[in-house]
Design a protein that fits this description.
The chain contains 13 helices and 12 strands. The protein is α/β, with parallel strands linked by helices. The chain folds into 3 domains: 44 residues, lambda repressor-like DNA-binding domains (434 Repressor (Amino-terminal Domain)), CATH 1.10.260.40; 121 residues, 3-Layer(aba) Sandwich (Rossmann fold); 137 residues, 3-Layer(aba) Sandwich (Rossmann fold), CATH 3.40.50.2300. α11 links the parallel β8 and β9. The model has no long low-confidence stretch (mean pLDDT 88).
Length: 347
């Protein structure tokens, strides 16, 4: 069956034997057209199935009222909460979203950026893939003066607005907490250190060890993809370590929960044998037993701040060329999974 063509203002004009200009004004409720004529035109438009072409209209104004979003994955509680924050702000400001994800692939991220550019989005919010080496694929946005803001995973040395947390401080704080609980052999399970988010958490971990007179051991740093499979793999590697580690800092709550479960299935007591700290403050941390100590990373706040800043740039309230780094507050939430000392109190 051949699809029906879109109804235009010219079809309505022909049907009513009036000018297309009058139809256009009536559909916008322009007072220059009498109420009776406006009503007749609008009713005819409804009967014929006319749809207003917002895209064409906005192009004439040099805007599409659309914001592009590039994320590195969708199967993530953190990213879901960020997107909720973004949507809350953009919807209130009258913007639509086009959401793409790179599946942790630079090549796919590059294609997504190119496609969003040709869809004429007004601005971009992006979080980088594991293997993104540079930001050259975003240059065409710069050349057209299209604002671009990075969140979570960002190149900190580049002159773009970015919304992040202090990953170094978080890494240090989580490790220091485990040391304060008496841990001396602490495993770090993290992701690709070429991505600055994980590199800075790793630096915080290593500096906390150094400041407490503990030796940094490369074999205790497990580089993973922070998936469910990663949690199982990390647990099996930990079980093969002699002597057994007494602490683990795992930079993803879901991976930490799976790791804990696998350790428990192999007779390891949490936190008596191994104290565990996760990252993100996902809901799963309150479901597992014992409940998971974690770093609170408020995704909704990150999304709201990133979107608000982008809209402020689009409205001209903030200079697009202005370089700034917005650091969102994060904190350690202490629960039973890390409490080796009876005197410590969970939050």
């Amino acid at each position: 069956m051949k699809p029906k063509k879109d109804i235009t203002i010219y079809d309505i004009a022909q049907k009513l034997s009036i000018s297309s200009a009058t139809v256009s004004r009536a559909l916008r409720d322009h007072p220059a057209v009498s109420k009776s004529t406006r009503k007749k035109i609008q009713e005819t438009a409804k009967v014929l199935g006319y749809r207003h072409n917002n895209f064409a209209s906005n192009l004439r104004k040099q805007q599409t009222n659309t914001i592009g979003v590039i994320v590195h994955e969708l199967n993530s509680n953190f990213i879901t909460s960020v997107l909720a924050g973004i949507e809350k702000v953009t919807a209130a400001a009258g913007y639509d979203l086009i959401i793409t994800h790179s599946a942790e692939s630079f090549e796919r991220e590059k294609k997504n950026a190119h496609n969003l550019f040709h869809k004429r989005v007004d601005g971009i919010l992006a979080s980088l893939a594991f293997d993104t080496p540079d930001l050259h694929h975003f240059r065409e946005f710069d050349q057209r003066g299209i604002p671009l803001i990075f969140f979570d995973r960002a190149e900190e040395q580049d002159a773009y607005t970015k919304v992040i947390i202090d990953n170094y401080k978080c890494g240090y704080q989580a490790t220091q907490h485990l040391i304060d609980q008496g841990c001396k052999k602490i495993v770090l399970v993290t992701a690709n250190l070429s991505r600055n988010v994980y590199a800075r958490r790793h630096r915080g971990y290593s500096d906390a060890l150094y400041d407490n007179g503990l030796k940094y051991q490369k074999e205790l740093v497990l580089i993973k993809d922070l998936s469910e499979k990663c949690g199982v793999e990390a647990a099996l590697q930990i079980l093969n370590m002699k002597p057994l580690p007494d602490g683990a800092f795992i930079t993803n709550d879901f991976s930490a929960a799976v790791c804990m479960q696998t350790l428990k299935e192999n007779g390891i007591r949490i936190p008596e044998d191994i104290a565990v700290v996760g990252f993100n403050n996902d809901a799963i941390g309150k479901i597992v037993e014992p409940q998971l100590t974690t770093i609170n990373y408020p995704g909704i706040t990150v999304g709201e701040i990133a979107a608000s800043n982008l809209i402020a740039q689009l409205k001209g309230d903030i200079n697009i060329a202005q370089t700034n780094t917005i650091v969102v507050r994060s904190e350690l939430i202490i629960r039973k999974s890390s409490l080796k000392k009876a005197s410590a109190t969970p939050v």
